[in-house]
Amino acid sequence: MDVILSQDVKSLGKKGQKVSVAEGYARNYLFPRKLAVEASAQAMTELKNREAANRHKIDTEIANAKEAASMLSGKELKISAKAGSSGRLFGSITSKEVANEINSQLGLSVDKRKVIISDIKQFGTYECEVKLYQGISAKLSIIVGE
Question: In terms of pTM, does the model score above 0.85?
Answer without folding.
Answer: no
